[in-house]
């Protein structure tokens, strides 16, 4: 009976240990903090400057984390013409869990079509690089009126409905309220 009781205690202890063992694996890889970009795509208006591309750590830094990035592809946005990086290297200090690459965006006085470039992390010191390690940045003109479109073309309604749900898509980031009426 004592052997059975001891065996059950041992099984409970091991079960508890295994249940708690992988808690840190969600934020670290092999005990190391990971660094990644905050998203795979960012959109910004050209009058929001400096624009900040976030680098996010899986846990607060236990030592300084140095991140080096570069423009992978300019697509139709030209560096030093449409945008300029303040620095392509940044340091996330001890105790912080995010840092930012700052980008000055050229604000043209007239409407310009969207401009796009791809930025990537080249090297991380003090953490392990994780996905996403590259992002697309879309610079949208702040001049002109945005184009609205309906997301759903068919909507079912009943007599009990006092309001009509309508989904609308907008073609750019817009800071002001947009109102419209259905007739």
Structure, explained:
This protein has one helix at 2-21, and strands spanning 28-29, 32-37, 41-45, 51-57, 65-73, 83-85, 89-92, 98-105, 115-125, 128-129, 134-140, 148-150, 168-170. It is mainly β. Strands 1, 2, 4, 6, 8 and 10 form a 6-stranded mixed beta sheet that branches. Strands 3-11-9-5-7 form a 5-stranded mixed beta sheet, with no helix packed on it. A hairpin with a 2-residue loop joins strand 1 (28-29) and strand 2 (32-37). The longest helix has 20 residues, at 2-21.
- Spans with pLDDT under 50 lasting ≥5 residues? 16-30
Quote the distance from N terminus to C terminus. Answer: 81 Å
**Biggest β-sheet description:** 6 strands, mixed
| Strand percentage | 35-45%
> What's the helix-strand series?
HEEEEEEEEEEEEE
What value does the average pLDDT take? 79
Helical content stands at: 10-25%
Question: How many beta strands in the DSSP annotation?
Answer: 13
Task: Provide the gyration radius in Å.
Answer: 25 Å
Total helical segments? 1
Structural class: mainly beta
Overall 3D shape: globular
Record keyword descriptors for this entry:
183 residues; mainly beta; 5-stranded mixed sheet
Sum this structure up briefly.
The protein has one helix and 13 strands; from the N terminus they run H-E-E-E-E-E-E-E-E-E-E-E-E-E. The protein has 183 residues and is mainly beta. Strand 1 (28-29) and strand 2 form a beta hairpin.
SSE order and pairing:
Layout: H1 2-21, E1 28-29, E2 32-37, E3 41-45, E4 51-57, E5 65-73, E6 83-85, E7 89-92, E8 98-105, E9 115-125, E10 128-129, E11 134-140, E12 148-150, E13 168-170
Parallel strand pairs: 2-10, 3-11
Antiparallel strand pairs: 1-2, 2-4, 4-8, 5-7, 5-9, 6-8, 9-11, 12-13
